[in-house]
Amino acid sequence: MRAYQAPWSNRALLVMVAVTTLVGAGLLLLAWRSDVEGRRMRDAPQCAPAQVFTSAKCRAVLDGTVTWITTSQAQVDVDGHHLTMPTAPFKNLPAAGERPARATLYRGKVVRVEADGRLFNATDTPQDSRDFVLALGVFCLAAGPINALALLARRGSGQKAGRRGGRGQQAGLRAPHLTA
Fold first, then answer.
1. Domain-wise residue ranges, the chain
2. Any transmembrane segments, and where (predicted)?
3. CB distance 85 to 111 below 8 Å
């Protein structure tokens, strides 16, 4: 007696659900890791003066000057250090020229700049990537099973139609070998 083997189409559905579930779970773990790092950044202790521009796990808020801002980068001078921060594309750039700013540094990198009443966040911060990765992970976890259920439901309705004679017989068509 042979063991039951699922048809290939069912195996493909199982593989699809398994892959999307694993990808979704991996993305959720990555989002959780980014959230943990974001909390570490938010709750980091204040930097000692000697630690501000090092990779020490501390945070500092310093006065500086924004020298230029583009749609993808901002350059800030803080205590004689020229620091560049990647930013998300945004509209309504402030006018060119130097302007006073407050820069937040974490592990020696600029993560946030406030200038002219506007707040510019760095794109490479853990918190920035967390929201996108979380949404993508939830989508993957939901998309696989929902798609599989939709395909099974469509297949189930197609099998019922096939038992009734299918589309050809419903339209009055007959198979060629049965015609007289």
1. 52-125
2. 12-32, 132-153
3. yes
Residue-level pLDDT at 63? 92
DSSP state string for the chain: -PPP---HHHHHHHHHHHHHHHHHHHHHHHHHHHHHHHHHHHTPPBPPTTTTTSS-S-EEEEEEEEEEE-SSEEEEEETTEEEEEEB---SSPPPSS-EEEEEEEETTEEEEEEETTEEEEBTTSHHHHHHHHHHHHHHHHHHHHHHHHHHHHHHHHHHHHHHTTHHHHHTT---GGG--
Q: What is the model's pTM?
A: 0.59
Tell me what pLDDT residue 80 has. Answer: 87
- Which portions of the chain are predicted below pLDDT 70? 1, 4-9, 89-97, 126-128, 156-180
Q: In the prediction, which pLDDT does 114 show?
A: 86
